[in-house]
Write a sequence for this structure.
């Protein structure tokens, strides 16, 4: 218990400084980094060389996220300067001008599609700036881009977080010959658990959108619920569609296609309903006037940067959307199972196979990294397609470099801290690593309530690493052993682990820092986490209760 408390100190310090004291993320994470480093050296007795390699390894890992953020910012800068964003804004208002409808279409549709074809934090990086362009407050854009992506990461890009995250470690603890059947069962139940979350996720989002960002008088629960009820039929239909498709594809096909299929089907249905006026609210809902937005809503951005975003048809609609379509098409084709293009793209690697003799390997796959392929090439192509002046092209690159710099510092410190805590497992003290110590204490204290606690262990992994895949690699085998010891379903517990890893992305400092960088509100990470803590808690509790229900009522006795 003492070791678990010490392990939690870096996390507690970051949370207090970031969320309560409202420090910028880079400073809060810097304090957490120092605490983790001191614990690693003094308590866990990591050798100085291993500690140094772990810190450097984390900093190198951050480069993948930084490149993706830079590519996303660059693409958005090109679209802004070329007038494409103005055309997209105009087009979206012709589909429906109600902000609640816009959020549901982009959240259930575009966010889910991009997660299915790209992952790596790409959905929030692309959709949040688009929401700002449509007229959403920057804080709202950041929060709800993260919100709608929460159910998606367990399947991510071609099912990697589950198929290869869980699959890479679970074979070590399974009886011989059971791996394929066990994994397919886990995938099916993840589809069911995340599918159930989709059902209420949109309606809850609309309710809190109004409660947090509505006009004076709407920041009361009763008024927010009333505003959500007006769009409830649409939210529930789209939520049930996304959840149903997600669950069916996962159960009957596998982990590779649930997110992307659910996204396309739900977006298509939503556009048809909007065009026909079916299930649309009678009254249009909008945010207060920009001049009345608080500094909190604006994320520190000046009003001049947000006032009355231009909405006009400056080019054919298809030309405005073409860069987005090129990005999604490239990612879809290259990640599609059966074509084997992903394997070929990943063959090109840069990095080191043995970092300073530590055995840790860092590899950057430039052709598989969304920031390099296709964000940057599509951005450059956009300059030619939209006939941008040279001055606007140069301005786009300068803006991207200027905006990515503060986010890059935060990410380097954050990932480095996470790796120090993870790699503390290699030590002279004989202790488990900091992260594993925390999870073991939680799991051992859960007893028969393990199905309720399991998502929270996944959340811990997602929070620390910013990756569902990494969370599953860290904790899947541990969760299996804990379920075996307690005598509850190992299938359900491991499925809940992966579900929780996705939920953790809502509050992961890495993801929050990335989206703050993309939206230009770096330094306001604590404000974002204050909002995303609530949906994280709601989803975590709901997943735990569903886990208990399935363990003891729906499928008792399941392996």
């Amino acid at each position: 218990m003492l070791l678990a408390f010490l392990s939690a100190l870096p996390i507690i310090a970051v949370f207090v400084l970031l969320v309560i004291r409202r420090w910028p993320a880079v400073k809060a994470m810097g304090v957490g980094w120092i605490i983790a480093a001191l614990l690693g050296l003094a308590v866990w007795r990591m050798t100085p060389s291993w500690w140094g390699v772990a810190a450097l390894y984390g900093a190198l890992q951050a480069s993948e996220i930084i490149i993706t953020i830079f590519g996303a910012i660059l693409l958005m800068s090109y679209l802004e300067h070329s007038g494409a964003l103005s055309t997209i804004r105009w087009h979206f208002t012709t589909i429906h001008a109600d902000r609640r409808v816009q959020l549901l279409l982009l959240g259930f549709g575009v966010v889910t599609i991009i997660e299915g074809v790209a992952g790596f934090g790409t959905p929030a990086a692309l959709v949040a700036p688009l929401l700002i362009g449509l007229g959403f407050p920057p804080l709202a854009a950041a929060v709800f881009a993260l919100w709608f992506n929460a159910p998606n990461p367990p399947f991510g890009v071609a099912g990697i977080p589950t198929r290869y995250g869980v699959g890479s470690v679970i074979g070590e603890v399974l009886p011989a010959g059971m791996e394929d059947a066990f994994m397919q069962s886990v995938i099916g139940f993840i589809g069911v658990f995340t599918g159930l979350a989709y059902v209420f996720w949109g309606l809850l989002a609309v309710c809190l959108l109004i409660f947090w960002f509505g006009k004076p008088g709407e920041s009361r629960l009763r008024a927010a619920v009333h505003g959500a009820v007006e769009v409830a039929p649409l939210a529930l239909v789209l939520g049930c569609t996304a959840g149903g498709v997600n669950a069916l594809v996962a159960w009957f096909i596998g982990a590779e296609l649930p997110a992307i299929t659910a996204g396309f089907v739900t977006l298509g249905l939503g556009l048809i309903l909007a065009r026909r006026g079916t299930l649309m609210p009678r009254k249009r809902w909008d945010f207060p006037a920009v001049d009345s937005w608080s500094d909190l809503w604006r994320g520190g951005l000046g009003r001049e940067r947000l006032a009355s975003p231009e909405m006009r048809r400056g080019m054919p609609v298809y030309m405005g959307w073409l860069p987005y379509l090129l990005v999604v098409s490239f990612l879809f084709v290259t990640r599609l199972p059966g074509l084997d293009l992903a394997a070929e793209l990943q063959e090109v690697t840069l990095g080191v196979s043995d970092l300073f003799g530590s055995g840790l390997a860092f590899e950057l796959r430039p052709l598989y990294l969304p920031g390099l392929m296709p964000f940057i090439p599509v951005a450059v192509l956009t300059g030619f397609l939209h006939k941008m002046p040279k001055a606007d092209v140069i301005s786009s690159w300068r803006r991207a470099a200027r905006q990515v710099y503060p986010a890059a510092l935060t990410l380097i410190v954050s990932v480095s801290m996470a790796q120090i805590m993870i790699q503390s497992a290699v030590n002279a003290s004989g202790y488990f690593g900091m992260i594993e110590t925390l999870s073991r204490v939680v799991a051992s204290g859960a007893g028969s309530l393990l199905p309720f606690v399991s998502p929270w262990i996944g959340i811990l992994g997602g929070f620390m690493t910013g990756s569902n895949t990494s969370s599953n690699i860290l904790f899947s085998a541990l969760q299996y052993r804990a379920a075996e010891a307690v005598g509850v379903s190992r299938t359900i517990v491991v499925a809940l682990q992966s579900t929780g890893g996705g939920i953790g992305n809502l509050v992961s400092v890495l993801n929050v820092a990335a989206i703050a960088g993309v939206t230009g509100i770096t330094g306001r990470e604590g404000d974002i986490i204050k909002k995303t803590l609530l949906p994280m808690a709601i989803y975590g509790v709901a997943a735990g209760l569903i886990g208990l229900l399935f363990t003891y009522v729906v499928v008792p006795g399941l392996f």
In short: The radius of gyration is 23 Å. The mean pLDDT is 85.
